[in-house]
Amino acid sequence: MDSQCDSCKLTFVVDLQEKNHGKGIRESFFTCTHCQTKFFAFITDDYIRQHQNKLKKIYKKGTVNHIDDFNRIIDDIKRKIETRMTELRGKYSDSPPTPEIIN
Ligand SMILES: [Zn+2]
Q1: Are 33 and 21 in contact (CB under 8 A)?
Q2: Which domain of life is it from (predicted)?
Q3: How far is the CA of 21 from the centre of ligand 1 (A)?
Q4: Distance 37 CA to ligand 1 centre (A)
Q5: Which of 6-20, 58-72, 79-93 has the lowest mean pLDDT?
Q6: Distance CA 2, CA 88 (A)
Q7: How confident is the model over 4-59, as pLDDT tens digits?
Q8: How deeply is 97 buried, as exposed, middle or buried, from its count of CB atoms within 10 A (0-12, 13-18, 19+)?
Q9: CA dist 83 to 16, 34, 68, 76, 77, Å?
Q10: Which residues, including other chains, have CB under 8 Å from residue 42's CB and lie 6 or more apart?
Q11: CA 29 and chain centroid, separation
Q12: pTM of the prediction?
């Protein structure tokens, strides 16, 4: 997975690293190998990981019979994860947004 650095505009290979913020909060980020600029990838806590597991289970088992219910439940869980991640990011992360992934 390559990415173009927003700062120096050079291409580098993404190597995810993890930072522990305590209380189960873990931030994943990567660093430009040319200029060392840090980029935010994602951040999770217990709440987010619980919901991610729920999603995995639904996808795997297909426990919801009706397709409309299926989509509605998936959307609902995804929205919860996104909201929480935005909140955590604002609180804990000092990294700039993720640059565009090239491939
Ligand atoms: Zn760079």
Answers
A1: no
A2: Bacteria
A3: 25
A4: 6
A5: 58-72
A6: 26
A7: 999 999 999 999 999 999 999 999 999 999 999 999 999 999 999 999 999 998 88
A8: exposed
A9: 22, 33, 22, 11, 10
A10: 27, 28, 85
A11: 9
A12: 0.77
Do the beta carbons of residue 89 and residue 43 sit within 8 Å? Answer: yes
Q: In angstroms, what is the span from residue 64 Cα to ligand 1's centroid?
A: 45
Token digits of residue 6: 């927003």
Q: Ligand 1 mean position to 42 CA, how many Å?
A: 19
Per DSSP, 36 falls in state -
Q: Beta partners for 12? A: 3
- The burial of 88, by beta-carbon neighbours within 10 Å (0-12 exposed, 13-18 middle, 19 or more buried), is given as buried
Which residues are CB-contacts of 65 (< 8 A; sequence separation ≥ 6)? Answer: none
CA 51 to ligand 1 center in whole angstroms: 34
